[in-house]
Amino acid sequence: MSITSRTARTVRIVGVTSVGAALALGVAGNAFACSIGDFSAVASCDSNGKGVITVSDTDASRQTATVSVYLESNGADAKQVGVQTVKGTKKGATVSFPEDWTPKAQYRVRVTVAGILDTDLKAPLFAPDKACQTSETTPPASGTPKPSATPSSSSAPSATPSESGSTAPAAAGSNFPSPAAGTSNLAETGAGSSTPMIAGIAGGLVLIGGGAVFFGMRRRGASKNG
């Protein structure tokens, strides 16, 4: 059975088309394939002033990747900061690792995608030169003293009267009244008292008053008789 030239040409066209389609699919597959270049990491401070390491994944093929972060010291792993998984997107998906990093600290970021990747980022991660500062601040002390909850002892009213204002109690043991001022001195010295003279003057005034009344009544009786 002979193959005509027309048939041979048709077969050749189909083969070329198939090869082209295969190449196109290969290029497209490579364009969407997950690679270490789809990952990046940065050390920064969050809104609370705490250290954090953020890893971004811009894998458009949306492969699930396992990300491991290690603190480096003298070229070796000092500790594992943490392990998380991320599913990449064309716009970029991120995972964050809380880490109280010190300035210029070095970290190693490992990315593993089953059957595709198992390697570190192309360059090690270095923390910034300046440490994070917490946003929590202590309020300044107020210069105005707060009023006392209880009144001071100086302003509180006295519960009992002062001793200086109280009346001294009378001396006990004596039922006799105290002598008038000056009496004791006169008795002791023997000087004459003014009492007889006052009594004489009072008696004279009584006599004068009685005489005036008598003469007044007598004159009134005489006037009535006349």
What do you see in this structure?
The protein has 226 residues and is an alpha+beta fold. The protein has a domain at 36-126: Immunoglobulin-like (Sandwich), CATH 2.60.40.10. 29% of the residues lie in helices and 25% in strands. It is built from 3 helices and 8 strands, in the order H-E-E-E-E-E-E-E-E-H-H. The protein has helices at 5-32, 183-189, 195-225, and strands at residues 39-45, 51-57, 64-73, 76-87, 93-98, 106-113, 117-120, 125-126. The strands form 2 sheets. Strands 3, 4, 6, 7 and 8 form a 5-stranded antiparallel sheet that branches. Strand 6 (106-113) and strand 7 (117-120) form a beta hairpin. It is rod-shaped.
Architecture blueprint of SSEs:
Blueprint: H1 5-32, E1 39-45, E2 51-57, E3 64-73, E4 76-87, E5 93-98, E6 106-113, E7 117-120, E8 125-126, H2 183-189, H3 195-225
Antiparallel strand pairs: 1-2, 2-5, 3-4, 3-6, 6-7, 6-8
Structure summarized in a few sentences:
The protein has 226 residues and is α+β, with helices and mostly antiparallel strands. Helix content is 29%, strand content 25%.
Q: Which strand-content bin applies to the residues?
A: 15-25%
Task: List the helices and strands in order.
Answer: HEEEEEEEEHH
- Determine the CATH superfamily of the domain at 36-126: Immunoglobulins
Major sheet characteristics? 5 strands, antiparallel
What's the CATH architecture of the domain at 36-126? Sandwich
The class by helix and strand makeup works out as: alpha+beta
